[in-house]
């Protein structure tokens, strides 16, 4: 179990990491979590991992309690739970994240608590959406958001602001918004602007 990382009886913190292209002949292609662990995973991408059994991205077992925030769980593959599987009294709390394009169902097992996240196929919870995140170049592993992404400013408004001072985005990489005039026919058009600040003249 655990093609990339195995966590056993641990409260490890994983932040700003890329866990990709790992393979296991069992469970947890990217990460497998056992033994009443309580890891926190933030601002990370778990992508293109494969498990021949369960939990292509993550497999969570044995009364583990997992916190996931501002992560991309994308393009993973498994027989069930392509994105993640949670079983045996385990719980996962997921916020401001994107779970998309995983094979073998996005999520399976014990239902995690998810909010302000983009879940392919939809998921009950405050602020959740089901919309193409419009990654920059997912085919080549670039999961930055493009300017029209529905994930921009769609995170939990109670979360810390993004570094550009705007509401938190969903996913591992925030979209840096540049204020200015976005109307190409205006005299003061700013071709670099991504947010119209009302200054067009």
Description:
By secondary structure, the chain is an all-beta fold. Helices cover 0% and strands 32% of the residues. It contains no helices and 21 strands. The strands form six sheets. Strands 1-5-9-12-15 form a five-stranded parallel beta sheet, with no helix packed on it. A five-stranded parallel beta sheet has the order 2-6-10-13-16, with no helix packed on it. Strands 3-7-11-14-17 form a five-stranded parallel beta sheet, with no helix packed on it. β18 and β19 form a beta hairpin. The protein is elongated. The protein starts with a strand and ends in a 5-residue tail after the last strand. The model has no long low-confidence stretch (mean pLDDT 96).
Helix share, percent? under 10%
Topology, number of strands: 21
Tell me the β content: 25-35%
Structural class: mainly beta
Number of helices: 0
The 3D shape can be described as elongated
**Gap between N and C termini:** 60 Å
- How large is the radius of gyration? 18 Å
Which consecutive residue ranges, at least 5 long each, have pLDDT under 50? none
Order of helices and strands: EEEEEEEEEEEEEEEEEEEEE
Major β-sheet, in short?
Answer: 5 strands, parallel
Strand order of the largest sheet: 1-5-9-12-15
């Amino acid at each position: 179990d655990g093609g990339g990382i195995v966590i056993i009886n641990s409260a490890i913190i994983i932040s700003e990491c890329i866990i990709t292209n790992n393979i296991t002949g069992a469970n947890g292609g990217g990460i497998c979590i056992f033994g009443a662990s309580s890891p926190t995973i933030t601002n990370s991408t778990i992508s293109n991992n494969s498990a021949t059994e369960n939990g292509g991205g993550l497999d969570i077992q044995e009364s583990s309690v997992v916190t996931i925030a501002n992560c991309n769980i994308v393009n993973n593959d498994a027989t069930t739970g392509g994105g993640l599987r949670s079983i045996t009294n385990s719980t996962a709390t997921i916020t401001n994240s994107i779970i998309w394009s995983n094979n073998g169902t996005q999520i399976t097992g014990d239902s995690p608590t998810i909010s302000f996240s983009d879940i392919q196929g939809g998921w009950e919870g405050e602020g959740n959406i089901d919309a193409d995140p419009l990654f920059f170049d997912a085919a080549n592993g670039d999961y930055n958001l493009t300017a029209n992404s529905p994930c921009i400013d769609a995170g939990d408004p109670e979360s810390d602001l993004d570094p550009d001072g705007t509401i938190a985005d969903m996913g591992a990489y925030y979209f840096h918004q540049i204020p200015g005039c976005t109307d190409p026919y205006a005299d003061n058009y700013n071709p670099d602007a991504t947010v119209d600040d009302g200054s067009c003249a």
